[in-house]
Amino acid sequence: MLMPWRPLTINASPGIRLISGSTFSLLNFVPATRTIDAHLVEKLQHFVSNASRLFVISGAGLSTESGIPDYRSEGVGLYARTDRRPMQYGEFVRSAKSRQRYWARNYVGWPQFSSHEPNAAHKILHRWEELGKLHWLVTQNVDSLHSKAGQKRLTELHGCAHRVICLGCGTVTLREELQRRFRSLNPGWRAEAPAAPDGDVLLEDEDVRHFRVPSCTACSGTLKPEVTFFGDNVNKETVQLVHDRLAESDAVLVTGSSMQVYSAYRFLLAAKERKIPIAILNIGPTRADHLAELKVSGRCGEVLSVIQPH
């Protein structure tokens, strides 16, 4: 039975200390929302109840409620707040100076980024997995918050920032280990900056001019986060695995994603072709609204907390 709908309040921490020393509310990174339509929430309840093998796609809008900024959120995303753009794969591979700038910014941002914890939405989706409701979860996020929440039936479509790969020999190491190497190579180096998405911060070129970047200990090759940068492609084996899990599913729920990136959008095209019903929970419009039979605008944690996984 559907629980009676009533407005919910997210109790954010009063403030979090950024590396720069400034204070912000968690909701600084979550767009403003209108009153949630109770009728649409009831329809989402029926959608979830009717699914027995639910396939979930999550995006940055899920992690903004943990205090991680995103790129595209209206008014609060990186694209709305600055003219900065994320690192492109080609630039990272071609330019040692670009890698120096990237890693310096990532080094400053890592303590804050790696300390974030799963929010209510992550925990609810893990609970659905434990109950047998959620068949598979595909996340576009690289923050490891689904893993921290305990999710097992999980594909990190764009990789995970908590791992580092050598572009020369393919050796994978922990990002925390690289952080220790950065500290050792750069004693006394300091910089302060506001946070940006995916563990990045905003630094000027002058700030990073003397920052030293280590190479792979196995082959002296170039180190890169094990994530899919903009302009790069998702591994074909990963794409096929997701298509296989989608084919086993009977409903698709998008949570916190505008679906602007094709690497995830293609799975909704495949679901539509297979006649698998689609529902979307997101603040604001998405690229896939025309593919969905149901669209709910609201915060993921707020809405999912009243949905019962019957």
Automatic annotation (TrEMBL):
Keyword presence, Membrane: no
Keyword annotations: Metal-binding, Mitochondrion, NAD, Transferase, Zinc
EC code: 2.3.1.-
UniProt main location, coarse: mitochondrion
Annotated binding of Zn(2+), by residue: C166, C169, C216, C219
Leading EC class: transferase
Cellular compartments annotated: Mitochondrion matrix
GO terms assigned for molecular function: histone deacetylase activity, NAD-dependent; NAD+ binding; zinc ion binding
Cofactor note: Binds 1 zinc ion per subunit.
GO cellular component: mitochondrial matrix
Gene3D superfamilies linked: SIR2/SIRT2 'Small Domain, TPP-binding domain
A Pfam family it matches: SIR2
Keyword Transferase: yes
Annotated function: NAD-dependent protein deacylase. Catalyzes the NAD-dependent hydrolysis of acyl groups from lysine residues.
Alphabetized PANTHER family for the sequence: NAD-DEPENDENT PROTEIN DEACYLASE SIRTUIN-5, MITOCHONDRIAL-RELATED (PTHR11085:SF10)
Listed name of the protein: NAD-dependent protein deacylase
Taxon lineage: Eukaryota, Metazoa, Chordata, Craniata, Vertebrata
